Amino acid sequence: MVGGVSPRTRVIVIGDGAVGLMAVLSARRLGAEPIILMGRHQDRTDRGRQFGATDVVSARGEEGIAEVRQLTGGHGSHVVIEAVGTMPAYRQALGTVRPGGTISRVGVPQYGDAPIGWDSLFRHNIRLAGGPAPVRAYAEELMPDILDGAIEPGKVFDATTDLKGVPAGYQDMADRTSLKVLIKP
Q1: Count of CA atoms in the C-beta half-sphere (13 A) of 117
Q2: Contact residues for 80 (Cβ-Cβ < 8 A; gap 6+)
Q3: Are residues 31 and 63 located together in one domain of the fold?
Q4: Is 183 a residue whose pLDDT tops 90?
Q5: Does 4 reside within a domain?
Q6: Alpha helices of 15-147 — where are they, by DSSP H?
Q7: What integer is the mean pLDDT of 88-93?
């Protein structure tokens, strides 16, 4: 992970979608603890707990930031994984990362500009990282764990469709009635 997660790293994952849940699973595999998942959908946050989240914060905005700060003894987190891609999620990341920490943006940004200047990142020595996952770089290491059942990323799939059902599957994911739809031709 470009966020620099390692054993005993405190991690916050913002977003309970498939990307956020994979971030929880990855953080646990890398030895992070605690792992705080910020999400509002109980079926998803329950899955997040199965994947390794130690705490769940359902509040958003300033209330969510305050709750995370309380859980972290006022310090914030070493690594915040922003898996949503919206400006409110980015602001939550800024509010929950500790000085000297890292914000890893893995949610595709749905905005053009974000605060990165003196008051938001620079004076607190906060690193901003992220981008599309280099899947091939991790596949060889992860496949044995997946095949022997040590990790089960396939649990994010909660619906199946054929090729004709793809548009409806995307709509179900947009409507939050499905987490991730598996397509079987």
Answers
A1: 3
A2: 3, 11, 12, 13, 14, 93, 96, 97, 101, 102, 103, 104
A3: yes
A4: yes
A5: no
A6: 18-29, 42-51, 61-71, 87-96, 135-147
A7: 93
